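Recap for those who missed Tuesday's class. We walked through two folding examples back to back. For each one, the amino acid string is listed first and its predicted structure tokens come directly after. Nothing is annotated here on purpose, so try labeling regions yourself before you check the end of the notes.
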Amino acid sequence: MDVSVAGIRSVGKSPLQAVVRLLRDAILRGEFAPDTKVRIEDLRARYGTSLGTVREALSCLLAEGLVVEEGQKGFRIASMSVADITDIMTTRSVLESHALTYSMQHTSVDWEAGVVASLHLLNRIERDSAAFGEWLAANRAFHLALCSGCPSPRLRDFLVSLFHQSQRYGHRLLSRGVVPRHLSDEHDQIVRAVLAGDVDLAVSCLKSHIEQVKGELVEIAALSPTPRDPPE
């Protein structure tokens, strides 16, 4: 896949959209250490764009919770901690449960088909433990498919932001050589309840699943101190 600014622009994206995507992906992969200063000039050179475009991209990622602003000092990569991932996953549990409930209340054949298709892809990828990066993307797509029938665009957008924030911890799991637990049974249980139209059971399975994942990511966060900038 072409991940250059030129490659992204070739499919109709603006320079700003291209830099936002590339920088977001780099942060999620852990290419920029948490809690370190963002060097705007380095990003300008890295992506071959203007300082203004880099600053706009950082403002977009500020809204997504991936960077933080330090007054007149510029931006830092958002920190990672036990408290942070606990808050992310707890909020996800509440909002994702609401979104799934709304989706089931507005169910359609197309929505159910999308959920089943996303589960099938996730299960296929999960069989290959080496494809962890693909698994993270497919797992996110599965959960977003569960919520895609929710009629509230704001709720759906906020869930996308929460997934981006939690995905940083997932990539850190990968960097330590840890393969995720076998999750297909839990995902299957959620989808079976969805297809049966049992809202209470589907939500219960989803909450239990998120709680299990939260415990694993909390363990990773506890073992992962976030360094500050080295002395200049």
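Example two. Treat it independently of the first, because the proteins are unrelated.
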Amino acid sequence: MAVDLNGRWENNFGSFLNLKVDAQGVITGVYGSDTGSSGTYYLVGAAGLNAPTEQAGRNLAVSVFWHPIDGTKSDPSWHWVTTQCGQLQIDGTISLFQSLVATTDFPGLAGIGNYLEKLTCSRTDKGPTTPIPAAPSPDDPQQEDLLNGQWQASYGGPGLSLSVKKSDYGWLCGRLSLDDEAILMRGFADIHADDTMLRGVTLCGYSSARGAAIALNGSLDPSTGRLTLSRWFALSTSSADGYVQTDLGSWVFEPDTTER
């Protein structure tokens, strides 16, 4: 029986994912968590197209915005964003690195920072029953936002175009210009942050040229106008070579005034 990403998963913290993957490798889904705050959240991401083998897993990356779709009592974590990068392995488990960007202090839990965690997901029949949403499209209507437009990474890094979509959840689309490839990115922006707060941003896509799922995760600092993002490449490796499966870097973007 083929090992498949579609369906329900439970991680080692007892959180649940319900994933749907289309023929192009676009991931949409719902995340249910009781870790820290409780709630149900949308997720979006990208995966390679090849089924896992003994020599190579199926690489993937997903973005989550920790603003619950069913929440009633807010707390500081409602502004936080996450990427999870890794691969589906031939043994039927998903191995992931999580980067949790806390853009606000949460007294008694965590300060502002980027928190890393290793996750393992296994099959389950439990989890959220919330309908899985459609992935945001670059053609969806755009709402006014400071993130919209062209950004350029420093020191000759890539360009990034962003478009915050008209919704109450912060859906975000973009294109990452990396080397000679234009990579469609999907994710979330914290549209609920005020003008004095760091604004969480998380995006995922797939680089066919590199054979890597790509995740960007970080924040926009309104005091400097800079967008600082960690960059994750999730490669396809054997389980034995998993220690070189995920590559981490960072980019600092500023508005590309030649394009605005």
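Answers for example two:
The two ends are 51 Å apart (CA to CA).
The mean pLDDT is 94.
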